[in-house]
Amino acid sequence: MLQGNHTQFARQFGFDYFARVDPSATAVVDSNGREWSRGSIRDLAEAIAQSIRGSGVQEGDCVAIILQNRAEYLAVYFGGLWAGVQVVPINWHLSSSEVEFILEDSGARAVFVDSRVEHRIHDVIRSRRSQLRAAVSLGAVSDHVELADFVASHRDTPFAATKLGRPMAYTSATTGVPKGVRLPEANSEAALERAVRWNLSLGVDLGPEDAHLCCSMLYHTAPMNGTVTALHMGHRVVVMDKWAPEAILEAIQKHRITSVFMVPSMFVALLKLPSAVRSRYDLSSLRYVLHGGAPCAIAVKEAMLDWLGPIIWESYGATEVQGTAVSSRDWLRHPGTVGKPMLESRVKILGEDGRELGRNKVGRVFMTPYSGDRFEYHRDPEKTLLSYDGDYIFAGDIGYLNDEGYLFLSGRESELILSSGMNIYPREIEDVLIQHPAVTDCAVIGVPHPLCGQVPKAFVVLSSDAAPETELRASLLQLLAKFLSASKMPKYFEFVRQIPRDPNGKLFRRKLIPQPVSL
Predict the structure, then answer these.
(1) Is-contact 351 361, C-beta < 8 A?
(2) Which of the given ranges, 127-131, 410-414, 509-513, has the highest pLDDT on average?
(3) Sign, Cα dihedral of 233, 63, 103, 177
(4) Range with the lowest mean pLDDT among 100-104, 174-178, 487-491?
(5) What is the pTM of this model?
(6) Which whole number is the average pLDDT over 258-275?
């Protein structure tokens, strides 16, 4: 019998509540068009929870999910939480060594893997089979037990969960080794309630009239949180296992989507569609478009607002801490802001000496999480301690608060370019470059320079109909000169076919290799 999800909160609302009130209502529409009822998702999740514990996994242990976007992903996720374990979503696009590192570091005791992911991941799991209580597959994988057989084999195993588990996401390691962000089990219900309360404060309703589109990868925190919160509010969820610009528009029209989470790279791709294609689809059902996960250029945001109207919200946070949001109306008053604190969250800016800075002074951004969580880096108490200033958390970003208390981000501290004593943040250059009509993607890094220490170098992806590169350099420099001082201008350009990003658009800046420059 499950006890951990039968609290006062769950009785008032939450996925378990809605599944009991109307088990036949549609909860999830899979990428293949299959509709899953609330009751079927809940029953599968409960059976998975029972089987996880029946296999010998204990409360507080880690269980890894390496699945593509599908309805079963959500059932495994809920099942892990209801079993009282730490659920570790793993990006199946990672290399085998990166997957192996996370499995080793987390100490995962069970793994749920998709037969559709590359064979190298299955080999990694086989190599760790002696450390695992269960290796479960969706689809046939040798040396794994299929999900249906896994739940059938533990159908009669009784257990009682005393607490809800939590997700333990690993940072995406865009600049180094990934770190597991462990959240306190004791705060699981309160964090969920605050997420729902924030959505209610925006005017999002409870019940089946709303439909949420998940077009990003569920192994990332923001898409997963948005999808799970929608289910907890009784909404239908439509899951895409891969995205393309026009496919997103098709899904919005077909399923009468009311809310969707996107990343800025999706905005750019949507805006690149011919106007005749964009106008072909009825998007009138949309009420909330939330974006985050990466910086969004002002020009891109303005174009999206011109198209969709004032329904776009932006949120800012990291795996470690979430805390600001901004409406379209407030963003238009303060273009470029990522907003003000959500609910009980607070923000402050500290200088290099640890003292709090005044308004419009750039420094390290410290926030308290609106969820009330106090995280720990898994197996790294020293790094955990260094991330805190009292209750405030530093997640690596640099920025400032304007006169009205709106937060603006300058960039990542680890990405700072030090050129002749001047601080240059790649984002301010990238935000200008992406405005050029021939640029479809870009990234800027610092490269070593014998006199200046570092200088900016821009990697640029061009559209298929772009002018020759020699002409483009002059055109790009002309555009940059309108917005940036001479000291911030890229000294080198490299035109590439692709910028290294994950499927959710997060930039892997570490994969852009800086080459020393000689005079």
Answers:
(1) yes
(2) 127-131
(3) positive
(4) 174-178
(5) 0.86
(6) 93
CB 518 within 8 A of CB 449: no
CA distance linking residue 310 with residue 332, whole number of Å: 9
Neighbours of 217 (CB within 10 A): 22
Give the per-residue pLDDT at 297: 85
Tokens, residue 241: 């296992």
Query: Sheet harboring 35-37: ordered strands across?
Result: 35-37, 26-29, 236-239, 211-214, 259-262, 288-291, 312-317, 322-326, 340-341
Q: Note the residue count of the chain.
A: 519
Q: Rounded to whole angstroms, how far apart are CA atoms 291 and 87?
A: 24
Strands (E), 95-173: 110-114, 134-138, 145-146, 166-167, 169-170
Determine the straight-line distance between the first and last CA of the chain, rounded to whole angstroms: 72
Q: Are 84 and 164 in contact (CB under 8 A)?
A: yes
Q: List the structure tokens of 180.
A: 């597991």
- Please report which helix (H) or strand (E) contains residue 460, including its range: strand 453-462
Nearest C-alpha neighbor of 123 from the set 145, 96, 150, 92: 96
Report, as an integer, the average pLDDT of 83-106: 93
User: b vs e for 451-477, b when ≥16 Cβ sit within 10 Å of the residue's Cβ?
Assistant: ebebbbbbbbbbeeebeeeeebbeebe
Helices (H), 107-187: 119-127, 147-153
Q: Which of 248, 221, 245, 240 is nearest to 315 (CA)?
A: 221
Query: Do residues 51 and 129 make contact, with C-beta atoms less than 8 angstroms apart?
Result: no
Contact 213, 223 (CB under 8 A): no
Q: Which residues pair with 347 in a beta bridge?
A: 367
* CA separation for the pair 238, 260 (Å, rounded): 10
Give the Å distances, CA to CA, from 206 to 7, 73, 211, 228, 241.
19, 23, 11, 13, 26
According to DSSP, the residues that pair with 98 across neighbouring strands are none
Classify residue 98 by burial, with Cβ atoms within 10 Å: 0-12, 13-18, 19+: middle
Residue-by-residue DSSP string for 379-436: T-HHHHHHTEETTEEEEEEEEEE-TTS-EEEEEEGGG-EEETTEEE-HHHHHHHHTTS
Angle at 467 between CA 464 and CA 471, to 5 degrees: 145
